[in-house]
Specification:
8 helices; seven-stranded mixed sheet; alpha/beta
């Protein structure tokens, strides 16, 4: 069991930007518009914005406000699929025997987002990029809890997924729409996370774990469970 506080949160998806938007969605969750709209990252210089994919923009849009005024803030970045659209473009160029862009390749690797974060913020704290499976949120939470245990006053946890190209649809079915969720975590006992085991594989939930947790936060539920394979994670909020 680990304990922690969720000091603040931010989330973004197409058409879901404000707290009111997310509260409405949490009461009646539906698949939202998967348009090419991107979050506002006008706080970044124009030259830097042009380098960012939508995945990176989503991560920055939720993380930047949470990090405002904080120094030496460790970051845990979690994405199961990462820069799938950018990688698909590179593979398409390879198949067509076209020259590859070194910039495109360097920005397609899984730790590109935390590298850009470090550069643009001048941040030199510990940063981790995880490519976990269906319970990546929980693995990111374990990493964040370890950093808090080591004395970090706060840790930023960001979970984001981009809509994959249509060609991946037979294999990637866990991204209902592009989204990013950011949590500013501190030491405390407001929340606890425990791991149990199911005797058999449990059915998948309707929504990704990060979005289910967001619903729990917004609807003031005290408990939510996330199952993946034979693992069952229980999030418990103190009364």
């Amino acid at each position: 069991m680990i304990t922690f506080n969720i000091a603040q949160w931010r989330a973004w998806a197409p058409g879901l930007e404000s707290v009111d938007d997310w509260q409405t969605w949490s009461r009646q969750p539906v698949i939202v518009d998967r348009s090419d709209g991107a979050p506002d990252v006008s706080f970044l210089p124009a030259m830097q914005r042009r380098r960012l994919s939508r995945l990176a923009r989503m991560a920055f849009s939720v993380a930047w406000p949470l990090a405002d005024g904080l120094q030496e803030l460790p970051l845990v970045f979690v994405s199961r699929h990462g820069e799938t659209p950018r990688t698909f473009d590179i593979l398409t160029d390879l198949a067509a025997e076209q020259p590859l862009s070194p910039t495109q390749f360097s920005l397609s690797v899984h730790n590109a987002v935390i590298g850009l974060w470090s550069i643009l913020r001048g941040e030199t704290s510990e940063m981790t990029a995880l490519a976990a499976a269906g319970d990546g949120l929980e693995h990111g939470m374990l990493e964040a809890a370890a950093l808090l245990k080591e004395g970090a006053p706060a840790v930023l946890l960001v979970v984001t997924e981009e809509q994959p190209p249509a060609v991946y649809s037979p294999w990637v079915d866990d991204v209902p729409f592009p989204y990013a969720v950011g949590l500013l975590l501190t030491a405390g006992h407001d929340w606890q996370l425990t791991l149990g085991h199911a005797p058999a594989k449990l059915p998948a939930t309707d929504w990704p774990h990060a979005l289910n947790l967001l619903r729990t936060l917004l609807t003031r539920q005290t408990t939510c469970q996330h199952a993946w394979k034979n693992r069952v994670w229980t999030w418990q909020r103190s009364p």
